[in-house]
Amino acid sequence: MSWNWNSQGLPFLPGYTFRDTTKSAFHRPQTLEYRNGCPLPCRPSVGIGQDPLPSERRDISDLLFETPDITSSTFEQSRDDVFVPAYVALHKKVLRFHGYFKEDILYSPEEDYRIRPVVIYYYLEDDTMCVVEPAVPNSGIPQGKRIKRQRLPKTEGGLHYQWKDLNIAMDLEVYGVKYRIVQCDAFTQEFLESEGIVLNDPEPMPEDPYSKRRENPQPSYTTPSEFDQTYKFLTLDRKVLRFFAQWEDADSLQGETRPVTIQYFLVDDTVEIRMVHQANSGRDPCPVLMRRQMLPKRVKPATFASCVLEVSTEEVDEYYSPKDFQLGQQIKLLGRCFLLYDCDAFTKEYYEKKHPDIEVKPIELPKRSDKLHDRKREIPPYNGFGSLEDSLQNCLTLIPEPPKKNVLKMLENSNMVLRYSAKLDSENPEDEGRRFVLSYFLSNDMISIFEIPTRNSGIIGGKFLEKTRVPKPGSTVDKPEFYSPADFAIGATVDVFGHRFVLTDADRYVLTYLEPMASQIPSETLESLQNKLNMYAIDNFPPDENGKKNVRVRTGGLF
Length: 559
Description:
Elements: E1 32-35, E2 38-41, H1 60-64, H2 86-89, E3 94-104, E4 113-123, E5 128-133, E6 144-150, E7 170-174, E8 177-184, H3 186-194, H4 209-215, H5 229-236, E9 240-248, E10 257-265, E11 270-275, E12 288-293, E13 296-299, E14 316-319, E15 330-333, E16 336-343, H6 345-354, H7 371-374, H8 388-396, H9 407-412, E17 417-424, E18 435-441, E19 446-452, E20 462-468, E21 493-496, E22 499-506, H10 508-514, H11 523-533, E23 536-537, E24 551-552
Antiparallel strand pairs: 1-2, 3-4, 3-8, 4-5, 5-6, 7-8, 9-10, 9-16, 10-11, 11-12, 13-14, 15-16, 17-18, 17-22, 18-19, 19-20, 21-22, 23-24
């Protein structure tokens, strides 16, 4: 820049150096535009201050001082490649190292140190790191994230660790703790080798003496015992035998049979019984029938009268064990009889390994003696208030929910109505002259009936039936069958909640709508509509000049 600089008495400082003193525009070109309301990036056509782009500007001075790049690659990278920022190119790219640190144990005669494995993550996006210790069940040590994601200091001068400083078989000292890196994953190895870093040979993870001692614990007693409680806890913790049983509740007034689940905890030989509640059963929300405890099987005979709240271990000869729980047999626990009929997969596998002499085979349940379950669910008949679907919801749930609707059908058949004229089929002679219009709404399959006013009849016309779905006679409340356009033939009788209507005529639109779906409509319905609505001759009209009778085409509605 110095050879092209025209000082004109100005210092060589930022803001005082301009190649063209007459130039007044120095703004950057737009690289973002909006199309159809959406932001789209675009490449600039000109440079800063409307100057040509560097790729298009070829000055003589640039040619003189241009140094060609010599590469061994057969592909020449274009100078106009799209710039990708680091936070986009390195997003979700993480280096993962496996290591450990040694924790000194000061006040324990059994151990001097512990080996605690860790996983070190290095985020290439912003050069941050975090250290996580994998959780070990029943370790008793707070584990998890040891160092949250941050830039770890390397020296006191303010330098931070970078990916160039990490390698296998090295020590990483952070906040006074020395971590030993022993291995890395495949992506980390490939990335470091592609950047020219020679990786050291991986090291094996040293064995933790504390974990080894937990796998083979030393006896914690001085005299021989029948079973080591520590080994039992380490091997049988969270292992439970689960049985499915039926409880004959003889104290109930109805003589009910209730399903229960019996859980046997192998770690301490305790038993818990839980009830299985059904939806809307009205039972107590607490499902625990018997809390977790050891159940005595045989109690020592008392030599004198005593009254105790709980039975101690000195008073019990034998507790219940897994051998006492066999499928197909009844077991009596605290005065209650339970019939075991099935178990889960873990329980079957346990008995096959530990007790092969016991047969584990599910049995079929006997017929339930519960009178409440034997009684069929009765739904009261429809009382005529509201729609049939809404009334049925009151019988299904305690809090009624609105019935589901077919939204797609409502949108497709919106404002589409089939209209029929009808007369009332009644034994009362006063109903002979009453005329009705029956409207069928295709969007929701509802029917409404309107009575046409008649002069001097003494009957007020108007709305006879609100929009509702009308079930066919003989259909049940559980599975109602409603009227459809296939049932509305000319001359057919429609039973609407005890009132009988005979269809006498229909709109032309009814035939236009039903003819394309002739395969779904009975032939009798279509024939009756075609005979009624097709063209017919009027005999009382005189013939024309050629001797033909005038023909009137029915194209209107019912009126």
